[in-house]
């Protein structure tokens, strides 16, 4: 009798383990505790490569796997449970939240930084000043010639080029600059940020739109990031208003996308950067990396990129004697 009972218990245990293993495979077949697989808007590849390298050095047991794609692709991968961490420029929509919940997952999302767009032109282009209303005019199709700008030294077709048709740049131009309407006029996609920079180096008729952190001479070269010198392109000065504001007063408020002017709200072309995770394991590497981006990673964002960290920063104005 004892042998019979033991046999039954063993069979039951094997069946339980088999069922449990099958269930685990269905839910987490692509995940291991030490895997950190994430998708990110390609705009943030330079700084995320440094963050990933530092986190991997601190956690050698972690398996770091990054996918730099358009924002809509990153969100699709997250929502469809192909991975459980994404870096984007917006939070989840209600529909996306419901899709995640339908798969029996929760989510966390946090603002980790602010990113600015840089408008770049050819080094031989004399026009390096533009205001927000003129940018809106370009993406709405009202402005198609350089002679239509308030501060200009040239004429001819004006073309605006950006990275990818599914990128966060397009969404920003559509939602924030064109009232939610489709962009029109001489506005074209080039494929990625480096393609935009390469085109601007060759042509004087284009304004390129890139994430500011792509304007690096070398990895971690913060001196170049601070003054934008020694680049093969010019960084335009952008203002909320032009020579005159709505009251007819002088409004020479043009600035370049330095962290200082982003922090003070003086540079108009900026957006938030968010980390979103659907991984429920509190001690897994994905969650550790998520909290690293909110914690120690903030110093990397502040000191080794042109993004503005979300954590509090002290702004000081230093005057040379």
The whole-number mean of residue pLDDT values reads 84
Number of strands: 12
Q: Main β-sheet: number of strands, strand sense, barrel status?
A: 10 strands, mixed
CATH C-level label of the largest domain:
Alpha Beta
Overall, the morphology is globular
Radius of gyration: 24 Å
- CATH level-four homologous superfamily name of the largest domain: Periplasmic binding protein-like II
List keywords for this structure.
alpha/beta, D-Maltodextrin-Binding Protein, domain 2, 12 strands, 10-stranded mixed beta sheet
Please, could you describe this protein's structure?
It contains eleven helices and twelve strands. With about 325 residues, it is an alpha/beta fold. It folds into two domains: about 35-115 and about 270-310, D-Maltodextrin-Binding Protein, domain 2 (3-Layer(aba) Sandwich); about 115-270, D-Maltodextrin-Binding Protein, domain 2 (3-Layer(aba) Sandwich). Strands 1, 2, 3, 4, 6, 7, 8, 9, 11 and 12 form a ten-stranded mixed beta sheet that branches. A two-stranded parallel sheet has the order 5-10. The chain is globular, with a radius of gyration of 24 Å. It starts with a helix and ends in a 12-residue tail after the last strand. About 40% of the residues are buried. Residues about 1-30 have low confidence and may be disordered.
């Amino acid at each position: 009798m004892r042998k019979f009972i033991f046999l039954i218990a063993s069979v039951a245990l094997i069946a339980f383990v088999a069922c449990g293993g099958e269930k685990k495979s269905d839910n987490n077949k692509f995940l291991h505790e030490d895997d950190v697989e994430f998708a990110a808007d390609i705009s943030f590849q330079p700084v995320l490569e440094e963050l990933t390298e530092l986190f991997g050095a601190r956690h050698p047991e972690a398996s770091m796997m990054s996918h730099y794609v358009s924002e809509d692709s990153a969100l699709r991968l997250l929502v469809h449970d192909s991975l459980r961490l994404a870096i984007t420029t917006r939070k989840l929509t209600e529909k996306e939240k419901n899709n995640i919940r339908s798969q029996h997952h929760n989510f966390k999302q946090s603002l980790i930084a602010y990113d600015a767009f840089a408008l770049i032109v050819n080094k031989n282009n004399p026009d390096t000043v533009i205001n927000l209303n003129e940018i809106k005019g370009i993406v709405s199709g009202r402005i198609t010639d350089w002679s239509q700008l308030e501060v200009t030294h040239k004429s001819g077709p004006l073309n605006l080029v950006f990275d990818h048709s599914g990128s966060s740049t397009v969404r920003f131009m559509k939602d924030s600059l064109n009232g939610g309407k489709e962009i029109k006029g001489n506005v074209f996609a080039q494929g990625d940020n480096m393609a935009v920079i390469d085109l601007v180096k060759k042509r004087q008729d284009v304004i390129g739109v890139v994430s500011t952190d792509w304007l690096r001479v070398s990895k971690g070269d913060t001196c170049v990031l601070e003054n934008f010198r020694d680049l093969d392109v010019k960084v335009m000065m952008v203002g909320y208003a032009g020579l005159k504001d709505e009251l007819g007063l002088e409004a020479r408020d043009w600035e370049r996308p330095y962290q200082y002017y982003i922090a003070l709200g003086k540079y108009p072309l900026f957006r938030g950067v968010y980390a979103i995770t659907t991984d429920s394991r509190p001690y897994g590497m994905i969650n550790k990396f998520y909290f690293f981006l909110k914690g120690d990673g903030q110093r990397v964002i502040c000191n080794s990129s042109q993004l503005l960290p979300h954590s509090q920063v002290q702004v000081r104005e230093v005057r040379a004697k």
